[in-house]
Amino acid sequence: MSTTTSASSGEEVTIKYVCGIDIGSQACAGCICRPDKSVVVKPMTFANTRQGWQVLGEKLSPLDARPSQILIGMEATSRDAGGFVSRVRAARVCALPAASQANASVS
To answer: Rounded CA gap, 9 and 71, in Å?
Structure first.
């Protein structure tokens, strides 16, 4: 597992899950893995609508982790993501510039 230090509390937090999201204008794709890269929720697509983002939220909710133990990585865009980010404030959200994603390969 991966350990990080919370900027707000200075407390060390263990990351138990990583959720990667690719945001498109009409649809999004995402999956949830453990830090060891084992898949928890297989890659799925969902509409880039409030209802679509709710589907992803329903996949995150039953995980055996506090929100601060879930790292969410998504493309940094001006799209609202259906208000998703505001609903997962306690999770760690990492916005990646689109150019960086090409260099962020998973080995």
So the answer is: 17
